[in-house]
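Researcher: Go.
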Amino acid sequence: MNIRHATKDDWQALSTIEAASYLAAEGASAESICGRLAHYPDHFWLLTTEADAGGEILAFVNGFERLQRFECFASGGA
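Model: Structure:
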C-alpha cells in the first residue's frame, strides 16, 4: 500500500470511486473532480497498491489542510 497525491490522469478512477460511494445528488460529478484536480492536486491523497501512478487506486480523500487551532485546545487542554 502507498499514499500519493493525485494527478490529472487520476480523474476517471476518482470519479468511479465517488459514484460508488455517494448517491448522485450528494457525490461530486466527474466535472467537479476534474476542476478540483486542476486547481488543487496536492489536496488529494490516494491509497494505491503501488508507489507509482500505475497502481490501482483503492480509496481517496480530498480537502484543505486546516491550520486553525480549535478553541477547546487553545488553553492546552485535551
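Model: The radius of gyration is 15 Å.
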